[in-house]
Write a structure and sequence with these properties.
It is a single chain. The chain is built from 6 helices and no strands. By secondary structure, the protein is an all-alpha fold.
Length: 190
């Protein structure tokens, strides 16, 4: 598959999600779903849950979770995006796309999605350190990250491959930071 055919497939998939698989209910739901302020209560719950259930260890978990976020955001926003320079669909001057843009388009580039990298990074970090005990939590975290990424395409600010590659970046960093967490846990006997 050539780069051109990958881009064409990506654009076609974008059109399906952004212009064809739409409804008024999804417009309202996904507009809010991708809003970072909507998730403040979730983050507060997660922090409280970790502190109440993991006591002293919770501070190490939170440290590595924040490290995961910092790494995904920095690599996506400061290294990959300026290197690739892919325009967002809402900035594309392409008659074929004609995106429905439901939010402010935002400045900067599209590839990779920092939203996807950050959310998949946090979700998978938590999943990797709590998996055996918390299957339902793992499924909910994956659904949460997936829907944040899907919403980015739906509202017109990212292409699907931006989300997929951002998710892969997040998962890769989560694997690294979860291993660092497990290593430090052994060394420090938390």
């Amino acid at each position: 598959m050539t780069l051109l055919s990958i881009i064409e497939f990506d654009q076609q998939l974008f059109k399906i999600i952004n212009r064809e698989m739409v409804s008024g209910m999804l417009d309202s739901l996904l507009y809010f779903w991708r809003n970072k302020y909507l998730w403040v209560p979730f983050y507060l719950f997660l922090i409280s849950y970790l502190i109440l259930n993991y006591r002293k260890e919770a501070y190490w978990i939170l440290f590595f979770m924040i490290l995961t976020f910092a790494m995904t955001d920095f690599i996506s926003s400061s290294i990959i995006k300026p290197s690739v320079e892919r325009a967002r669909p809402c900035h594309e001057k392409n008659e074929y796309l004609k995106p429905r843009v439901l939010v402010t388009c935002g400045s900067g580039y599209s590839f990779t999605s920092s939203h996807a990298a950050n959310h998949f990074g946090i979700a998978f970090f938590i999943m990797l350190i709590l998996t055996k005990k918390k299957k339902l939590l793992s499924m909910l975290l994956f659904f949460w990250a997936f829907m944040v990424g899907y919403a980015q395409v739906y509202v017109g600010v990212h292409f699907p491959f931006d989300i997929i590659c951002g998710a892969l970046l997040g998962v890769g960093i989560a694997i690294l930071t979860s291993e660092l967490y497990k290593f430090s846990k052994k060394k420090m006997a938390i």
